[in-house]
UniProtKB/TrEMBL annotation:
A Pfam match: HTH_17
Name under which the protein is recorded: Helix-turn-helix domain-containing protein
GO molecular-function terms, A-Z: DNA binding
Record-annotated Helix-turn-helix domain positions: 61-104
Source species taxonomy: Bacteria, Pseudomonadati, Bacteroidota, Sphingobacteriia, Sphingobacteriales
Superkingdom field: Bacteria
Length: 117
């Protein structure tokens, strides 16, 4: 029973990774791209990470400090967003990076005044 559940969880995670990759590769018109988040908020509280090898060529990656500066938040807040799965991280070895597009879209998304959408 436990083995079956673990296999099911693995398949769900693989499906989630494929769907997220498809969503993030969609071509969105420029005027919408400024208002839509680049990531789909996950249904679970687990962190979302992708491998450096899954990144398309030409994608700009930001360090933790660069992402914090652009979002105007401290490292602890960024780590909380990461832990909650609200922003996807890119892992290259032990280094953690954030896609520039995800950070900018998050900044735009969370800067929209409530009730104005």
């Amino acid at each position: 029973m436990i083995k079956s559940l673990l296999i099911l969880i693995e398949h769900v995670e693989q499906c989630h990774a494929v769907l997220t990759k498809m969503y993030n590769s969609l071509k969105v018109p420029a005027e919408l791209n400024r208002t839509l988040p680049a990531v789909i908020p996950p249904q679970s509280s687990s962190a979302r990470e992708i491998s450096f090898t899954d990144i398309e060529e030409g994608v700009v990656l930001l360090t933790i400090d660069d992402a914090c500066a652009r979002l105007g938040i401290v490292r602890a807040t960024l780590f909380n967003l990461r832990q909650e799965g609200k922003i996807t991280t890119v892992k290259k070895g032990r280094a953690v990076r954030f896609r520039e597009n995800d950070v900018e879209n998050m900044r735009n998304w969370y800067s929209i005044p409530k009730g104005k959408v």
